[in-house]
Specification:
The chain has 520 residues and is an alpha+beta fold. It contains 18 helices and 12 strands. The chain has helices spanning 19-23, 46-51, 61-67, 137-152, 191-200, 203-217, 227-249, 299-318, 324-357, 372-388, 393-404, 409-414, 422-438, 448-455, 463-476, 480-489, 500-503, 508-512, and strands at 28-30, 40-44, 80-82, 86-88, 91-93, 101-108, 114-120, 135-136, 159-171, 175-185, 251-252, 274-275. The chain binds adenosine monophosphate and magnesium ion. Adenosine monophosphate (AMP) binds next to loops. Adenosine monophosphate binds at residues 96-101, 127-128, 131-134, 255, 259-260, 269, 271, 518-519.
Length: 520
């Protein structure tokens, strides 16, 4: 297949309908992916290709590699580098933008949802600054593993369609094999996209962007009296739900800069993220997060901080900056939303915790048997137990299903002092009994043990296993460990015996020294 700067167009792989480039002039720059030396398909999610209505079946891998590296632009692609700003670790950069990514187009998937198709690692753009615009095989396969794990855990996320190795080296601390990832997202609108227009004082651009975001993610709000305010509220609610879910699986994003927070409510940008092992609310893995700004327990606070930055960016749409009284009113309105956020988060987190505790049984009137305060305390005390007893976060929760089936020993065995869980277990059992007494008899409701197995995963992407799989792929070109790990991560709730090696915690000395790296 000829290789060129989009000179040759292949029959449609995707059926593109590119609204971003069309409707938001000034929000992006048309740009071409770099041509790569020897594209080779490392990973393709064929079922997702099908979901996207992509015509991948029957195409040779070499053709797909050419199309999914950008060497041959898929027909209808209109690649653009998106502009955005962002607060990075609290400091504002008025212009970040896609420095190593390109939105190549949008498709309507088989469920009627608009999805962005984007490349990551596709070469320099006008936003690259000192970066090379490239990505390495390891971090791109890492994005596949963690993103697919999140998806299987039921957590909103961007996803990877494909990874193509480029046959070129990228230079980090050492030379590494290069790759291009194809990312699929509900959109790539970020808090930082709004900040970009606000920082430039481009009110028309900001207005168009807000209208675009509403049309794309919250069409019901279009007719509301104050769409920017309602958009802020909708984003805040989605983020409250998202962060609550992260917290429920021990996920630490690692770089919650405002350019890495979506309007859609999807998790985006799998850089230095990691899942914690032994429960520690202070857990941080990122090598550049010296102050622990993005530590596990800080994530809800940071989400609120980021939403306050979104609120600031939206304010000029809500009030004429010259009109002091109107500005005051608008500030009061957005402040109310930002102040509500902790309550929305706590409510969603309590839902997550109730599910993980098996006390979310459907009850008449939809009210749980326990008070919110009691259930918050029950969850908090379980987490305290895990922390004090040095218990692996994932396995600690998972062993509640054994306890629900009458066997406390697997949970006790994880504790330094096997007697330590006794008082908590007694309280939990009393609470379960209250839930059962209050619940209507729901025919076909699975047992608590079964429900707990669906709420508390057995397999998460354990850092040491992820690193092993990536090293095999990156250093030796062996993708077999990556593929078996991915298969296990796709069934996180199953008790499959073959998944056992993937469920084991890392030796503590490995976890203690584990560091993740950004922008690699
Ligand atoms: P991230 O930390 O991945 O969210 O990226 C922050 C900013 O740095 C974004 O504008 C990225 O596009 C840019 N960036 C990250 N890595 C590179 C790279 N290798 N080359 C160019 N720009 C990059
Ligand atoms: Mg980013």
């Amino acid at each position: 297949m000829p290789i060129g700067h989009g000179a040759h167009e292949d029959p449609a792989l995707f059926h593109f309908d590119n609204t971003y480039a069309r409707e938001l002039p000034g929000a992006s720059i048309a740009w071409k992916p770099a041509v790569v030396r020897a594209p080779r398909l490392l990973y393709l999610d064929r079922s997702m290709a099908d979901e996207l209505g992509a015509d991948a079946a029957g195409r040779a891998d070499a053709d797909l590699a050419a199309l999914l590296s950008g060497n041959v632009l898929p027909e209808g692609a209109e690649p653009i580098a998106q502009a955005y700003a962002g607060h990075q670790f609290g400091g504002f950069s008025p212009q970040l933008g896609d420095g190593r990514a390109l939105l190549i187009g949008e498709v309507i998937d088989r469920h009627g949802r608009r999805r962005d198709i984007a490349f990551k690692g596709s070469g320099r753009t006008p936003f690259s600054r000192s970066g090379d615009g490239k990505a390495a095989v390891g971090p791109m396969l890492r994005e596949v593993l963690i993103g697919e794990a999140m998806h299987a855990l039921g957590i909103p996320t961007t996803r990877a369609l494909a990874v193509v190795s480029t046959g070129e080296l990228v230079y980090r601390e050492q030379p590494l094999p290069g790759a291009v990832l194809t990312r699929v997202a509900a959109s790539h609108l970020r808090v930082g996209t709004f900040q970009y227009f606000a920082a430039r004082g481009d009110l028309d651009g900001l207005r168009r962007l807000a209208a675009y975001a509403v049309a794309r993610h919250d069409p019901d709000l279009a007719g509301s009296p104050n769409p920017p305010l309602e958009l802020l509220r909708a984003v805040a609610r989605r983020q409250a739900a998202l962060i609550a879910q992260w917290m429920g699986v021990g996920f630490i994003h690692g770089v919650m800069n405002t350019d890495n927070m979506t309007i859609s409510g999807e998790t985006i940008d799998y850089g230095p993220c990691a899942f914690m092992e032994a429960f520690d609310p202070e857990a941080v893995f990122s090598s550049i997060d010296h102050g622990g700004r993005y530590a596990y327990a800080n994530q809800p606070l940071i989400a609120r901080w980021n939403l306050a930055r979104l609120a600031e960016a939206l304010l000029p749409l809500m009030a004429d900056p010259e009109d002091e009284a109107a500005v005051q009113r608008a500030v009061a309105e957005v402040t109310e939303v930002i102040d509500e956020f902790p309550r929305w988060y706590e409510a969603r987190h309590l839902e997550v915790m109730r599910r993980k505790l098996g006390i979310d049984v459907p009850e008449p009137g939809g009210r749980p048997a326990g008070t919110d305060a009691d259930d918050v305390a029950l969850a908090r005390d379980f987490l305290d137990l895990l922390q004090v007893q040095g218990v692996d976060f994932t396995l600690g929760w998972r062993r509640l299903s054994d306890a629900a089936a009458g066997d406390d020993n697997p949970l006790r065995a994880l504790c330094r002092d096997p007697q330590a869980p006794t008082p908590w277990l007694a309280r939990w059992r009393a609470r379960c009994a209250a839930a059962d007494a209050a619940s209507t008899d729901t025919p076909g409701l699975p047992t608590r043990a079964e429900r707990l197995r669906r709420a508390n995963p057995w397999v998460i992407p354990r850092n040491h296993l992820v690193e092993d799989a990536l090293a095999a792929a990156s250093d030796r070109g062996d993708v077999a460990p990556f593929e078996s790990l991915l298969a296990a991560l796709r069934r996180p709730f199953d008790d499959a015996p073959e998944a056992e090696p993937y469920a084991r915690p890392a030796p503590p000395e490995l976890t203690a020294g584990y560091r993740t790296f950004c922008g690699t």
